[in-house]
What we know:
Blueprint: E1 3-13, E2 20-23, E3 32-34, H1 35-40, H2 43-46, E4 49-51, H3 54-59, E5 63-74
Antiparallel strand pairs: 1-5, 2-3, 2-4
Amino acid sequence: MSNIVVEFSGWVVADPDKTLFFKIGDSEGPETIDGKQWLALDEDDRGDYILDNVIDAQRDSLDGDYLEIDIEERE
């Protein structure tokens, strides 16, 4: 069976109240934080967190645009 591959690029304006980040660094702090907490961190501490779920950030975004969407079949 073939797979459907969707390639895309674009951007969103993430809602700080609905955007979650997951801790990956060694610093002390909560395992997950919201966007408001992330914005309150200094630049070094922000690097200890990654976006928890990009699909949720896209769904709950305040604005956004897809610059390119390509769909193809791959064996």
